[in-house]
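Incident review: delayed structure delivery

Summary: a single-chain prediction request sat in the queue longer than the usual turnaround. Root cause was a stuck worker, restarted by the on-call engineer. No data loss occurred. The affected request and its eventual output are reproduced below so the record is complete for anyone auditing the incident later.

Affected input:
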Amino acid sequence: MGKVAAQLKVMPESPDVDLDALQEELERVLPEGAKINGFKRDDIAFGLVALLPTVIVPDEAGGTEAVEEAFAGVSGVESVSVEDVGRL
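Output delivered after worker restart:
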């Protein structure tokens, strides 16, 4: 079975959220079989910065859904969206 790389956009609830701590928590809640292949940060507006993790997941039914749900459950996360998906 192949693998898929997906770039997600994780929006924090406010500019006051500690992005380093949030990044560590996202790595901690990652579902089994998924792997983070780096983070980028994107300045949005008014001091708000989004995290853009690139996640490697198996190419199977559901794709990034488990990762999105895990990330959305983290304290301090406002929303999670898929920005880009491609096969490895």
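Verification: The chain has one domain: 3-87.
Action items: add queue-age alerting; document worker restart procedure.
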